[in-house]
Design a protein that fits this description.
The complex is a heterodimer of chains A (395) and B (806).
Chain A: H1 3-14, H2 19-26, H3 41-52, E1 55-58, E2 61-69, H4 77-80, E3 95-103, E4 114-124, E5 127-135, H5 141-152, E6 156-160, H6 167-177, E7 188-191, H7 192-200, H8 209-217, H9 230-240, H10 244-271, H11 281-290, H12 294-304, H13 310-323, H14 326-338, H15 342-355, H16 359-366, H17 371-385
Parallel strand pairs in A: 3-6, 6-7
Antiparallel strand pairs in A: 1-2, 2-5, 3-4, 4-5
Helix pairs in contact in A: 7-10, 8-10, 9-10, 11-12, 11-13, 12-13, 13-14, 14-15, 15-16, 16-17
Chain B: H1 6-13, H2 15-26, E1 31-37, E2 44-45, H3 53-61, E3 67-68, H4 69-79, E4 84-87, H5 96-107, E5 112-116, H6 120-137, E6 143-145, H7 152-161, E7 164-167, H8 169-176, H9 184-188, E8 190-195, H10 203-222, E9 228-233, H11 239-247, E10 252-254, E11 264-269, E12 273-275, E13 280-281, H12 284-297, E14 302-306, H13 309-323, E15 333-336, H14 342-354, E16 359-362, E17 377-381, H15 387-394, E18 404-409, H16 414-421, H17 423-428, H18 441-454, H19 469-478, E19 482-485, E20 488-491, E21 511-515, E22 522-527, H20 532-535, E23 541-544, E24 547-555, E25 560-565, E26 570-589, E27 594-614, E28 620-625, E29 631-642, H21 646-650, H22 654-676, E30 683-688, E31 694-698, E32 704-708, E33 713-714, E34 725-730, H23 739-744, H24 746-758, H25 784-795
Parallel strand pairs in B: 4-9, 4-10, 5-7, 5-8, 6-7, 8-9, 11-18, 14-16, 14-17, 15-16, 17-18, 21-25
Antiparallel strand pairs in B: 1-11, 2-3, 12-13, 19-20, 21-22, 23-24, 24-25, 26-27, 27-28, 27-29, 29-34, 30-31, 30-34, 31-32, 32-33
Helix pairs in contact in B: 3-6, 4-5, 10-18, 12-13, 22-24, 22-25, 24-25
The chains are: A alpha/beta (395), B alpha/beta (806).
Chain lengths: 395, 806
């Protein structure tokens, strides 16, 4: 009995009553072909290039070149820097490169590779050069990686959607496997997903790229191949030289890359602080504040008005304190305290103790704090007042 | 008042000595043999001159001024750049055999080390010890655990900055190797790989680990690293062989321990005969219970090892009934076994180290190197199944300078009886061989798959010397997992293969036991897939720390059992039917009267029902049904048949043949386990026709019954052809290489079984030879024992095969 039928038999009964998990364990099971040998890769690559409308660069690597014109919006490069993550770049005229990959698997690990890399950069204020590299065979991968990163260059600022956790580490892994120098993880990188999530997490069902397209760009893809079917499309090409699905992946990837640029241009207004509804102003302001942009933070929070939640108001009060606008801060704390907010009570207690040196008031607000805060505060304040004091009754 | 000489006074007051004198005086008739292993003085060697000064300081700070001779020997092998394996007893300072060279290398800035322990708990102990050394010498070494509990944000720090990473094979398999590029820096600097508790890497787990090491070496080669491997093991007969087959390279052994050892006493204990006619002895359980009570009353700390989880719970309950009656006091008796939650086990370990537990009842779970401090007495409730495991468990009692006592209480099983009646066999025997088969096809296929994900296979690459790599790769290509291009094999599917491979077994998925009584639906235990059907059927009593729970429902697909606390005064025991079908014969002996063969078989286990057994009286108080899917397995087996004609001549009725075959199978199974030096549970036995048409089982009346595929009883005389056979099978899916040696030793097994039955003291048959027989058996008109002898006599006409005599 040969090894293959022996294995079939052994496996058929090793894990019974579990056919489902066995099926997934096998992956896609295909009928065995008599020959099974590989078709010569190069003629196939030329045929694929034809189907996809791409150039055949040789060695199984294809490249499709396109130009995309963005609707004129008067945006300059400086405007694209008006996001907390990249505001420090506004004087350096950044070289934005939008990037998105299609991979053989979504689970991570060294065995997954990108069989398609889409990338785009500006060639004019509203003009994008879009490049899509496609592998017609495994052997072309090292060359593709070299070409992509040569084109990207060392000074580019990558712009991606979830690229920090997915695309870039995956490409870095493949570079290591092919022993190619370079660490894309060190490139400057704006991951738009963080900015979108920060602003909309609480308001949208999810924060996938296509949801952002619908919500922010009013874009609805028709007949789009779901990203999760991309691996199967490349497998179909490798096994049966079936290119039709791969052509759909190409369209999908192109759309992704272009959407990155559109989305990138859509976000700065959201972050500018126009008091729009349906946005988490507290989080946006906090991101600006964390980036050291206090005026922008203040603008976002103040313009939000009643849309700002208590947490946002507390942060605004904190910012006022930081900027020395004590009376504005006090007004917010008093308003929140009146609604029973204990964090505000704590802030007020500190304010009266350290700033106003009004210990009596400080004690009054300390009484509303949590116990761990309250007791040391009482002790200290009594001390400061220098005499025994009847503690206020606790509520 | 007169004064005793000091030594005598000390001897007199030694409580362990007092207990052993007391037992010998009261129960002389039950003690079959006694062994005293004298105390042993230490053999020292100097600290190596080249030792880093900080490291020397750290050792001196911990009171280590010189090394035991085996530690110095290991140091030298490490300096010579050899792979080595250290095999010395429990508590002999084994860890320094690898910590010293590793710490030296790290101190000198020459490289890093990876430590692998079979379980997470052991790894955590080890880091604690390293950190202590680190502190006392100010070594500034970063030792970290990397396991499932390591938080995501800490993982990066471990990869980038860990000097010594302590992990387990499962993590290496599922998290490290598939993400090897993230570990590039670590692998490039790797100088030592340490595998402690090597003896646990045997059987199916060992086959997995051997293949895991093949994968690791591939990745190491990719990063240009060639670290030294250090193995540590409890006593086994073939440490070098095991280490060599795990590593696939030459390994040198360090076996002479220089550590001191206190005096150790061992009693072999046979329960008294209570029914001489049937050869029935008192249960081992009753004796163990008695000895443990003596020890605890005498103020000694003891550990009791039981062979099953069920027995752990039963013994714990009996001991708690005596010592933990008062609930206001802290409990003195604890149970410890697999299936308890990790936190609960850690808590018990901690109490053991603190000495606040007087008696712990455990399965083999505590046999491994979990640090539990020092105990005085170790009681084995039944022979653990192997000589190595026996010594390993006995080693749990007794530390450097104190006398300790071990008692091996024999059960009624043939193996136990054989050992207590032939003490010289046990006391003189070398420990077992640990067997692995790194080329077990299913395991190999799993790991070739994982390896292809980690790095594409290139033309001319190999994966262990005799592996049909190319055929396996082609198989995976045909399955659509790999793509073959220009001589290389590339991973092509959207899957993470390591997730589908468990290193501990072939079947997957643990069952969670969930207590429904509480709103929170608390998980109270975990049960592995293979033992779930025997323990978690609806109606089963499942015990945790001797508290009974009743299983209300079992979600087979979802791998969950829902239980509720109960006050039942009984426990349950599943009734299992096994039938077998021969698929292929690898080899066959065909002398005149019998046929002996080995080959591949298909096996189905059916869980037909369960018995309810009352506590203390152990009477059977009822039955219940089990509705569970049959468990199928494909494995290898050896089998024995009697040629038609000869069978009818020797055994006139089919009923007699059934009884004879069942009795002979019982004896052969136990003798085979002993001779194969494997555990009884690694082998299974069955009697049937080899076509899976019918199988034989012992009915409630004690007589052999013939049952068909659906488990219904058949009348033997009304069937067509009657070709019974005895099967001894490898009890792991795909087999782990046990059936071929079974076949080769067939004559020895039959001869041993023949002697066991012939020399038994009973009249009709008993649990010590052909299995339990009932009182009513006298009415049968023939003794099952004689029938088994007839069958074995015929089997023994098969010629000796060309196997080297043991």
């Amino acid at each position: 009995m040969n090894l293959s039928s022996k294995l079939d038999r052994l496996r058929g009964q090793a894990t019974p009553h579990n056919t489902e998990s066995r099926g997934s364990r096998l992956g896609l099971r295909i009928p065995r072909t008599a020959s099974g040998g590989p078709v010569a890769a190069l003629p196939r690559a030329a045929a694929l290039a034809d189907t996809l409308g791409a150039d055949d660069l040789g060695d199984g690597l294809l490249l499709r070149h396109r130009e995309f014109l963005l609707p004129p919006d008067g945006f300059g490069n400086k405007d694209l820097c008006l996001l907390p993550e990249v505001c420090s770049l506004s004087d350096s005229d950044p070289d934005w490169v939008y990037i998105d990959t299609e991979t053989t698997g979504l689970s991570g690990g060294s065995g997954n590779l990108a069989f398609m890399v889409g990338a785009a950069r500006y060639t004019g204020s509203c003009r994008l050069e879009v490049r899509q590299y496609v592998l017609a065979s495994f052997a072309a991968e090292p060359r593709m990686l070299r070409e992509v990163f040569n084109w990207v260059g060392p000074d580019a600022v990558l712009v991606s959607y979830n690229g920090k956790c997915f695309d870039v580490p995956l490409l870095a892994t493949r570079l290591k496997i092919h022993r190619i120098e370079g660490s894309p993880g060190r490139l400057r990188h704006l991951d738009l997903m963080y900015g979108v999530r920060r602003a909309y997490r609480a308001h949208w069902p999810d924060c996938r790229l296509q949801t952002a397209e619908k919500q922010l760009l009013d874009m609805h893809r028709r007949d789009d191949l779901p990203g999760s079917e991309a691996p199967a499309a490349w497998q179909a090409w490798l096994r049966w030289a079936a290119a039709s699905q791969l052509a759909r992946v190409m369209v999908h990837n192109y759309q992704d890359v272009v959407s990155l640029a559109l989305l990138h241009r859509r976000l700065p207004p959201v972050y500018a602080g126009n008091g729009l509804p349906g946005v988490n102003h507290a989080a946006i302001g906090a991101a600006w504040r964390q980036a050291g942009q206090y005026e922008r933070a203040r603008q976002v929070w103040e313009s939000a008005g009643d849309l700002l939640d208590d947490n946002g108001s507390l942060q605004l009060a904190g910012l006022y304190r930081q900027l020395g606008d004590w009376s504005l801060a006090e007004a917010i704390w008093l308003r929140l305290h009146a609604r029973g907010n204990i964090s505000a009570a704590l802030a007020l207690s500190k304010f009266y103790e350290h700033r106003k040196r009004d210990f009596r008031k400080a004690i009054r607000f300390a009484a509303c704090c949590e116990r761990a805060e309250r007791e040391p505060r009482f002790a200290r304040l009594q001390d400061k007042m220098g005499r025994n004091l009847q503690l206020p009754l606790l509520m | 008042m007169s004064t005793f000489p000091l030594s005598e006074a000390a001897g007199f007051s030694d409580p362990v000595d007092r207990l052993s004198q007391q037992l010998k005086a009261r129960y002389a008739g039950r003690i079959c043999a006694e062994l005293t292993l004298p105390a042993k003085a230490a053999q020292y060697d100097k600290l190596p001159l080249e030792l880093d000064t900080r490291l020397r300081k750290a050792l001196l700070a911990r009171g280590v001024e010189q090394l035991y001779s085996h530690q110095a020997e290991a140091w030298q092998l490490a300096q010579d750049g050899r792979h080595y394996v250290v095999v010395t007893p429990t508590a002999s300072g084994k860890t320094l055999c690898y910590n010293l060279p590793v710490l030296q290398t790290v101190c000198e800035g020459l490289g890093k080390a990876l430590y692998l322990f079979p379980t997470k708990a052991l790894a955590q102990d080890q880091v604690a010890e390293l950190l202590e050394l680190n502190r006392s010498g100010g070594l500034g070494i970063r030792a970290c655990t990397f396991d499932g509990d390591t938080p995501g944000d800490a993982r990066k720090a471990v990869r980038m900055r860990g000097d010594i990473v302590v992990s387990n094979p499962d993590m290496l398999h599922q998290a490290i190797l598939p993400h090897h590029t993230k570990w590039a820096q670590f692998f490039e600097g790797l100088r030592y790989i340490v595998l402690d508790e090597m003896h646990s890497y045997r059987g199916i787990f060992g086959a997995h680990v051997a293949n895991l090491i093949r994968r690791l070496k591939r990745i190491l080669a990719f990063y240009g690293a060639s670290p030294q491997f250090v193995f540590c093991s409890a006593t086994i007969a073939n440490p070098v062989e095991l280490a060599t087959s795990l590593l696939g390279e030459e390994v040198t052994a360090v076996t002479r321990s220089g550590a001191p050892q206190g005096e150790r006493r061992l009693l072999l204990w046979n329960p008294p005969v209570i029914n001489p006619d049937l050869g029935i002895r008192a249960s081992a359980r009753s004796q163990t219970n008695r000895i443990a009570r003596h020890a605890t009353h005498g103020g000694l700390k003891s550990i009791v090892f039981a062979r099953s989880r069920l027995m752990v719970e039963v013994l714990t309950k009996y001991l708690k009934d005596v010592f933990d009656k008062d609930r206001r006091r802290p409990p003195r008796v604890f149970a410890y076994r697999g299936g308890y939650l990790p936190s609960e086990r850690r808590e018990t370990e901690k109490r053991l180290r603190e000495g606040s537990i007087d008696c712990v009842v455990s399965t083999s779970a505590l046999e491994l190197g979990v640090d539990i401090g020092s105990l005085d007495v170790c009681i084995l409730n039944g022979y653990p199944g192997s000589i190595a495991a026996t010594w390993q468990r006995l080693g749990r009692a007794g530390r450097r300078n104190r006398t300790s006592l071990g008692v091996l209480v024999a059960g009624s099983e043939p193996l136990d009886q054989y050992i207590v009646r032939n003490p010289d066999f046990f006391l003189g025997a070398s420990p077992e061989h640990a067997r692995i088969d790194p080329d077990q096809l299913l395991v190999l296929l799993d790991h070739v798959r994982c390896a292809a994900f980690e790095l594409s296979f290139r033309q001319g690459e190999d994966f262990g010397s005799d592996v049909p790599l190319k055929q396996l790769l082609q198989y995976l290509r045909d399955e659509g997992v790999l793509h073959h291009e220009d001589g290389s094999w590339h991973w092509m599917t959207d899957a993470y293969p390591a997730n589908a491979v468990s290193l501990r077994s072939v079947a997957e998925g643990n069952f969670l036991v969930i207590d429904q009584e509480h709103d929170s639906r608390q998980i109270i235990a975990e049960v592995d897939f293979s033992s779930a059907p025997e323990t978690l059927y609806p109606g089963a009593i499942y015990m945790v720390q001797a508290a009974p729970y009743q299983v209300e429902s079992l979600d087979w697909e979802g791998r969950k059992a829902y239980v509720r606390p109960t006050r039942a005064d009984y426990y349950t025991d599943a009734v299992v039917y096994t039938r077998l079908k021969i698929l292929e014969r690898f080899a066959e002996l065909r002398p005149a009267q019998v046929k002996v063969a080995h080959g591949e078989v298909h096996l189905v286990r059916r869980f037909s029902g369960y018995k309810k057994i009352r506590y203390y009286s152990h009477e059977n108080i009822g039955y219940g049904n089990i509705n569970l899917p049959d468990q199928e397995m494909h494995t290898t087996a050896a089998w024995w048949e009697i040629r038609p004609g000869e069978l009818e001549k020797a055994l006139p009725s089919r009923q007699m043949a059934l009884d004879g075959f069942l009795g002979a199978a019982y004896a052969m199974h136990h003798v085979a386990a002993l001779q194969m030096m494997s555990e009884t549970s690694d082998l299974g036995r069955a009697v049937g026709d080899g076509d899976g048409r019918w199988f034989a089982t012992q009915g409630a009346n004690g007589r052999g019954q013939m049952r068909d595929v659906s488990g219904d009883e058949l009348a033997p005389d009304y069937q067509g052809a009657f070709r019974p056979a005895i099967f001894l099978y490898d009890n792991h899916p795909g087999g782990i290489g046990l059936s071929e040696p079974l076949y080769e030793r067939q004559a020895m097994i039959v001869k041993g079984a023949l002697e066991l039955v012939k020399n038994c003291d009973c009249r009709y048959g008993c649990p010590s030879c052909v299995g339990p027989v009932l009182a009513s058996d006298e009415e049968r008109g023939y003794a099952p024992r004689d029938l088994a002898l007839t069958v074995l006599g015929l089997f023994s006409t098969a010629p000796m095969s060309a196997w080297p005599q043991a």
